[in-house]
Design goal:
alpha/beta, Fumarate Reductase Iron-sulfur Protein, Chain B, domain 2, FAD/NAD(P)-binding domain, about 15% strand, binds flavin-adenine dinucleotide, binds iron/sulfur cluster
Length: about 475
């Protein structure tokens, strides 16, 4: 149970961020990893509570055995701790970088919670560094073939487990690199791409076959016993204004993809924010990633518009612990914008009323308008609140409305009212040999939820194949 007085003796210390001035000069990892001593001390703070909410449904969707591996880490048994972590977590190096750590918000220590995410990252990176992570080749094969469509976290987690269960797995991915949003979406500074590539190489060594640059077509999947659709929820929500086709208006994931391609190829991005006034529509995590990326590309200014009011500083009575706190967070990109510009880039209760263009069809500015809620809960524009903003690059990060229609059409499938392929019985089985998982089944969510869902789908397919 860690140290009996661990949380009293040791204060919570997360892996620190590199300072703003330094990290804005590159796309390298935001954080500085701490060593064994610091991690063991942090693990000592875990109290092995009678009811460990961290691993309950309120906490980790993978139900990681958090108190157990924290205890082993505290005692210096790193290899045993890693084994315990890998019982439930397929890729701790991904969650160790990008998970919002639902487990920590559900920790009994509340704001003083244990640094589970950093501890998890330390364990897996120690495993790689010490050579404990080696390809696990299944002892026997079942002779069953499974195609996994999409190589995001849900597809990778499903492929990993199906392969370990002895099935022959092919992952079909339309992009030129595997990883889904882990590769092209989440920026390099949050998740360095060599970490994604390292896992793909390991999975290949374990027998998983990756077919890249290949869009899945049902006619070409005849030879598979089961097909798992993990295509994500990648249809972006648009703005209901004219000139959305103007040059300099882009959806966030397209922009972030171009930025990552440039980082990987060490060349200039084909769509750079350099010297431009950037406006990001959407105050969520994707919007924040756009802010951080635009600043690194050398934008002249960055503003973030959010239609909702600013969240409260503290939990409200309707949002008690151990629920995820719906409170104001100032993420790394916003911190960097404050450092660079001297003010918070976020403007709340505001949207775009009009995109202004120049004579060459390029965006030149925006007319914004304030929003207010009607008693029925609808948003309405506040008359006379219009303002003009300079804008050379408009990035739309207003959320996602479901899976791509092209894939639905190809497979002759119909999504539900929220754009999801979610079977009515709550399972992963759509029809015949078709299954779904991840954001495609549940709507845009989190990496850790996609991993958990991919593993659940794999178990269901395994049972069905038997
Ligand atoms: C910018 C951004 C930042 C984010 N940051 C975080 C974060 O910090 N932490 C976090 O927990 N979550 C984050 N998320 C959410 C998280 O990335 C997703 O919830 C997760 O990636 C979903 O995984 P998935 O496997 O379901 O789908 P995806 O990751 O979307 O992968 C789907 C894959 O399927 C492929 N595909 C689709 N159709 C076909 C087809 N017909 N044939 C072949 N391939 C196909 C796509 O090319 C893609 O590679 C972020 C999301 C975005 C957009
Ligand atoms: S995956 Fe996320 S929620 Fe689960 S233990 Fe790791 S940091 Fe916590």
């Amino acid at each position: 149970m860690g140290s009996a007085t661990g949380f009293l003796d040791t204060v919570r210390i997360e892996n620190p961020f590199r300072n703003e001035a330094e990290r804005l000069g590159d796309f390298e990892d935001l954080h500085i990893a701490q060593g064994c001593e610091a991690r063991c001390a942090q693990a000592s703070r875990c109290m092995n509570c009678g009811v460990p909410f961290c691993q309950s449904d309120f906490g980790c969707p993978l139900h990681n055995l958090i108190p157990e591996w924290n205890d082993l880490l505290y005692r210096g048994q790193e290899r045993e701790a890693l084994k315990r972590l890998l019982q439930t977590a397929p890729f701790p190096e991904f969650t160790g970088h990008v998970c919002p750590a639902l487990c920590e918000k559900a920790c009994n220590l509340e704001n003083d919670c244990v640094t589970n995410r950093d501890n998890e990252l330390y364990l897996i990176e120690t495993g790689f560094a010490k050579g404990w992570i080696q390809p696990r080749i299944p002892a026997a094969r079942t002779g069953k073939r499974v195609a996994v469509i999409g190589s995001g976290p849900s597809g990778l987690a499903a492929a990993d487990l199906l392969n370990q269960l002895g099935h022959e797995v092919t992952v079909i991915e339309k992009a030129d690199r595997a990883g889904g949003l882990l590769m092209y979406g989440i920026p390099n500074m949050k998740l360095p791409k060599e970490i994604v590539e390292r896992r793909i190489r390991l999975m290949e060594a374990e027998g998983v076959c990756f077919k890249l640059n290949t869009e899945a077509i049902p006619e070409e999947l005849q030879g598979y016993d089961a097909v798992l659709l993990c295509g994500g929820a990648r249809r972006p929500r648009s703005l209901n204004v004219e000139h959305m086709d103007a040059q300099g208006v882009m959806f966030a994931v397209d922009y972030l993809t171009a930025a990552t391609r440039a980082v990987i190829s060490k060349s200039a991005s084909e769509t750079s924010a350099k010297d431009l006034d950037v406006v990001v529509v959407g105050g969520g995590d994707t919007g924040n990633d756009c802010v951080g990326t635009a600043l690194r590309q050398g934008c002249a200014s960055v503003t973030q518009l959010e239609m909702m009011p600013a969240p409260p500083e503290d939990r409200t009575p309707g949002n008690p612990w151990p629920e995820w706190p719906r409170t104001l967070r100032t993420d790394y990109g916003q911190v960097e914008a404050i450092f660079r510009q001297g003010s918070d880039p976020r403007i709340y209760e505001t949207t775009v009323k009009q995109i202004l263009t120049d004579e060459w069809g390029h965006i030149s500015g925006l007319e914004t308008v304030k929003l207010q809620r009607t008693p029925e809960g609808r948003f309405e524009q506040v008359a006379g609140s219009e303002q003009t903003l300079k804008c050379g690059l408009l990035l739309i990060a207003a959320g996602f409305v479901g899976c791509e229609e092209r894939t639905l059409d190809r497979f002759a499938l119909k999504a539900d009212g929220r754009g999801r392929l979610l079977p009515e019985d709550g399972s992963h089985h759509l029809e015949g040999r078709l299954f779904s998982a991840g954001d495609m089944r549940n709507g845009q969510s989190l990496v850790v939820r996609a991993l958990a869902d991919g593993r659940n789908a794999a178990r269901e397919i395994d049972a069905w194949l038997k």
